[in-house]
Amino acid sequence: MSVVPVDKRSVSLDADLAAAIEQAAAAEGVSFSQFLAAAAADRLRRADGLRAVAEWEAEHGAFTAEEIAEADAEIAQIIQRQRAREHRR
Questions:
Q1: What are φ and ψ of residue 8, in 5° steps?
Q2: What pLDDT, on the 0 to 100 scale, is given for residue 86?
Q3: What is the per-residue pLDDT across 29-81, written as a single tens digit (0 to 9) for each?
Q4: Nearest-5° angle of CA 69, CA 41, CA 56?
Q5: Alpha carbons 14 and 5: distance in angstroms, whole number
């Protein structure tokens, strides 16, 4: 069994937000900390993706409306397949 190093922190949250996180974490079967860590990791991945897009566009030009529509359609298909897989579990 490997031990993952943990950096304990104290955070302050609006009471309503904390309650909503607690409820969402319980619904997902994870701890409050795990829920927050996953949310932060998602946000960091999104920021990395946005940075990569900005770099690509700086070098190659902005994406066209057609390219964005094609990407949106592909993403919708991926999400639909993931939800179908989750529903079968």
A1: -75, 135
A2: 87
A3: 999 999 999 999 999 999 999 999 999 999 999 999 999 999 999 999 999 99
A4: 40
A5: 28
For residue 57, the number of C-alpha atoms closer than 13 Å in the C-beta half-sphere is: 11
- For residues 56 and 63, give the distance between their C-alpha atoms in angstroms, rounded to a whole number: 9
Q: Report the Cα–Cα distance between both ends of the chain, in Å, rounded.
A: 27
Beta strands (DSSP E) in 1-89 are none
| Two structure tokens written together for 63 | 């994406």
Assigned token pair, 24? 């969402």
Which pTM does this prediction carry?
0.72
Largest pairwise CA distance in the chain: 49
Q: Give 88's pLDDT tier (boundaries 50, 70, 90).
A: confident
Tokens of 79: 């999400």
Amino acid at 47: A
Residue 30 identity? V
